[in-house]
């Protein structure tokens, strides 16, 4: 009887030891699995950070070095004007320089093209009607002093024009609509006035 009890106790002890070993093995494997999961999670996290940094670098390049580019995404100026044609066909054209983020291009436009654009777009966007547009002059259209003054007024008009369009809720150029997709293509689609090669009547390529 005692022998049977000893055998039973030995069996129980052996079974307990076996189960403890199994338990330790499971815990050990669990720790290894957890460690692997932690490594995978860390790799995923690092990958996400790298992609984010890559995106930020791409955005930084698209916006240029100046962080204020989003506040002023369109820069426009009229650096000069040129006399084109001869005799009755002689007229002045204004060089319009447009920079959108990292894209820059120029077009040459007669005063009449500015006026046409203003008349057309103010019917579509009421906010533009409030802008002061340089009036047409019956005399002195070829006087350089008058042309120099007109250049200055047209430049101010274009800057005010884009300022209004970037803030207008109905405008396709509204900054919240286009954001980082604002581009030369966006501007040219908005109005052919800004598209190079349109009104191709002069030696400068546009009229």
TrEMBL record:
It comes from the Eukaryota. GO terms for molecular function: phosphatidylinositol binding. CDD domains: PX_KIF16B_SNX23 (cd06874). SUPFAM superfamilies: PX domain. InterPro entries: PX_dom (IPR001683), PX_dom_sf (IPR036871). Residues 72-186 form the PX domain. This is Kinesin family member 16B. The gene is KIF16B.
């Amino acid at each position: 009887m005692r022998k049977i009890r000893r055998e039973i106790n030995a069996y129980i002890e052996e079974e307990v030891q076996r189960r403890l070993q199994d338990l330790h093995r499971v815990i050990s494997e669990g720790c290894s699995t957890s460690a692997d999961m932690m490594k995978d999670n860390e790799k995923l996290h690092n990958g996400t950070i790298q992609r984010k940094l890559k995106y930020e670098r791409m955005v930084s390049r698209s916006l240029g070095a100046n962080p204020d580019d989003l506040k002023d995404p369109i820069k426009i100026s009229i650096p000069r004007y040129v006399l084109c044609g001869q005799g009755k066909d002689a007229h002045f054209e204004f060089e319009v320089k447009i920079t959108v983020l990292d894209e820059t291009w120029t077009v040459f436009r007669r005063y009449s093209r500015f006026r046409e654009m203003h008349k057309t777009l103010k019917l579509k966007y009421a906010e533009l009607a409030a802008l002061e547009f340089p009036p047409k002059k019956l005399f002195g259209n070829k006087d350089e002093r008058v042309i120099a003054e007109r250049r200055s007024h047209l430049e101010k008009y274009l800057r005010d024009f884009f300022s209004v369009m970037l803030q207008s809720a109905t405008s396709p150029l509204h900054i919240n609509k286009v954001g980082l997709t604002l581009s030369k293509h966006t501007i040219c689609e908005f109005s052919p006035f800004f598209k190079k090669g349109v009104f191709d009547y002069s030696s400068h390529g546009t009229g």
